[in-house]
Amino acid sequence: MNETQPTAVRGPGPDPTPPGRHAGLVLAAACVAQVMVVLDVSVVNVALPSIAADLGFAPGGLSWVVNAYTLVFGGLLLLGGRFADLVGHRVAMMLGLVVFGVTSVVGGFAQTPGQLVAARAGQGLAGALLAPLSLAVIMVTFPEGRGRSRAVGIWAMVAAAGSALGVLLGGVLTDWLSWRWVLFVNVPIVAVGLVLAWIAVHDGRATRARRLDLPGALLATVAVTALVNGLIRAGEHGWGTTGALVSFAVAAVTGAAFAAWELRAAHPLVRFGVFRARPVWVANLVVLFIGAATVAGFYFASLFLQNVLHYSPLRAGAAFLPFCFGTVVGSMLSGRLTARFGTRVVLTAGLALGGLGMLLFGRMHADSTFLDGFLLPSLVASTGVGLCMVANTSLATTGAARDEAGLISGLINAARQIGGSLGLAVLTTVAALHGTPSSPEAATRLLVDGYDRAFLVTAAFCAVAAVVSAVFAPGRPAAPDAAPGDLPEEQSARA
Questions:
Q1: Torsion angle defined by CA atoms of residues 407, 354, 342 and 151, in that order, rounded to the nearest 10 degrees
Q2: What does pTM read for this prediction?
Q3: To the nearest 5 percent, what fractions of the chain are helix, strand and coil?
């Protein structure tokens, strides 16, 4: 297989300029925005029992504390990425941070289930703007090569570690203060992010898209929202329920209409030509499976700790510290190993390690302890996640044009979100209890058997992604010393 990079993604905008004296602050702003988005996903999960007891959620209603965020976030990611290209990264980041802060305060003071669910939907709206934007500002600030690879590595490491630390923080805040503080904690993070965005994030006119494709944005939002909603309903009520089937049908019709419109639109929301570049479609396909494996893996690992080992929220959160450690180690090693061995080797190895960790999780049983059942899988899986997330994010940004930074970032985040929703829907069905337990001990065994099956499927997700990476991922990274103005052909020749 050809070991050189494919033709880079090119667009009408100029290449990024070299990072200036505020480049470090730009990276800090991007990391603050991203860590708040990923933190908000995991920090709330641990507090759900306390939220239900305090606000009096009806049976089945509590899941919408998570689903309201997931639906809005997933449905608006593509629009959020393009909106940032339209209005400018500085304005978009500050707007996203303000909305996140305000809705966090509203949610923290919520007195009814409806108020909290509405606030979570508002957070999803802000997250849909901040998630693609946090990567886009890195892409337009750092020229392709060693500097961008290092920046993307730090961004991915902070994002991955934030997910693991969110579980711990959620446990600490819920046990020591109140579940309301899992929302209030966003306020100081927003304050720091606003200062950094104001000082460091600036836009040239070339950063902005000329026009927003409103029909395409509407069709994409409806299609993705309907797909995520169908997956949520399938996971909760079954794949054959009316709600799930109607949602999937709406997603299929509007998705087809979106594709037809984009092919003839003068200023498309998604320029399908970007998928002709191998880094883009490989990275999006791989991250779809990574999202399915990691989101579902976190979910079932947390359930195992609390429902089988009977950990408190604080203790369950602390149990994820090794996962955080492994993610940081894997992320730190990823850039260096990629420069030496190439994207394909590091990405495939990381996915293989992640799959092995999930297989080890699948060997846990009702008598397992943290040391003999949970620690080793956590370290193995998290190191693999750190390796592959950094390598895959760097792969996705290879050769991206300045004015398509938001598009590329939105695609990657949307693929990860859809993968996570798909993984949870599939694995909730896989882990469902089979049979009627005759005793509490039998019920625990059935519960563990379901969790083990779910972990085995997450291992299969990682295996499929590893095969895609081994066959299709480019073998070598882009030339690290390429000048920022070089054309792709000149970079390949220099390499």
A1: 50
A2: 0.72
A3: 75, 0, 25
